[in-house]
Design goal:
2 copies of one chain form a homodimer. The first copy, chain A, is mainly alpha-helical and 147 residues long. Helices cover 59% and strands 11% of the residues of chain A. Chain A has 8 helices and 3 strands, in the order αβααββααααα. Chain A has a 3-stranded antiparallel beta sheet with strand order 1-3-2. In chain A, a hairpin with a 5-residue loop joins strand 2 and strand 3. The longest helix of chain A is centred in the C-terminal third of the chain and has 17 residues. The mean pLDDT of chain A is 93. At the A-B interface, helix 6 and helix 8 of A face helix 6 and helix 8 of B. Chain A binds a DNA duplex (30 and 30 nucleotides) through helix 3.
DNA sequence: CTTTTTGACTTTCTCTGACTTTCAACATAT
DNA sequence: ATATGTTGAAAGTCAGAGAAAGTCAAAAAG
């Protein structure tokens, strides 16, 4: 079996504890596998591309490291699923419930939550009941699509 | 973990009581972390730059010290200024112009831009002309307040 | 030919210490 | 009493050493 495949597998196993980001040290890992450090770069650039669902960051210098994040696209699936299930109308209360769900599933961050909430709040819309819930549904779904 | 990161964190924790300015003594801090004093300068110059929202002053000599102030960059002032100058109504075109200004001044990022735009677009609001521009103005201003 | 492996060279970030500058307090001379 | 000099206690600067990671092209393997 190829070195690269072994290293790939090793790195992927690091995600097994359920964390969505792991950190490695290039030299340390290279030493562990008895290969040159740049082999690690090779593995990362061929096996942990964005198109494969990973996002990579790094820092050089003393205490430097490489961080690999798993970007789960279940997020998008989940959002699409929600959007499909939101009808033509949405109350402010519905929005609150959805937002707190999203937050607890890490679908959105707190800033996005605030924006969603404020853009769809009764005070901001200030429309008649029948219009309000319809406009709110449209704004909410369209914003979600862009998160 | 790097020395610099630890010192950075320590200093940032000093702000935790809500104060917007803290004072340290370079030598004392260096001693506390068992590093050379100039390491403190390094941390300050790399982690407490104006672009990161901090303003630093110091005094040498007996009883000298370093003061670090948290400055809310004029980003907020600018946003407030804009909000005040937006009237009761706002067209989709106005929004486009404002958004591209914000982007070029780094007041918002592209994601926020998308959310602002989508939440205020004609297609999403789908309201009569007179209502539309009023609702749009309210949504836009309130979202801006939360960015 | 394509993918993998290797290593020489580069870039970035951190840490350190020697040397410099500034300030306040105290001392001395006019 | 005022001005000047001295000293010690800070903080500042800067360049070099060290610690990672990045790049790229040649060699090797498949």
């Amino acid at each position: 079996m190829r070195m690269s495949d072994i290293i790939e597998e090793f790195i992927k196993d690091l995600f097994d504890d359920g964390s969505d980001a792991i950190e490695i040290q290039r030299n340390e890992l290279a030493e562990h596998f008895n290969c040159v450090p740049s082999q690690i770069n090779y593995v990362i650039s061929t096996r942990f591309k964005p198109s494969q669902g990973y996002y990579v960051e790094s820092r050089r210098g003393g205490g430097g490291h490489i961080t690999i994040k798993k970007v789960n696209n279940d997020k998008e699936d989940y959002i699409m699923h929600i959007i499909k299930n939101i009808g033509d109308e949405l109350t402010a209360n519905d929005v609150d419930i959805l937002i707190s769900d999203f937050l607890s599933y890490d679908i959105i961050d707190t800033k996005e939550a605030k924006l969603l909430k404020v853009a769809t709040s009764d005070n901001v819309l200030k429309l008649s009941k029948d219009l309000k819930d319809k406009v709110r549904a449209r704004i909410f779904k369209n914003m979600l699509l862009n998160i």
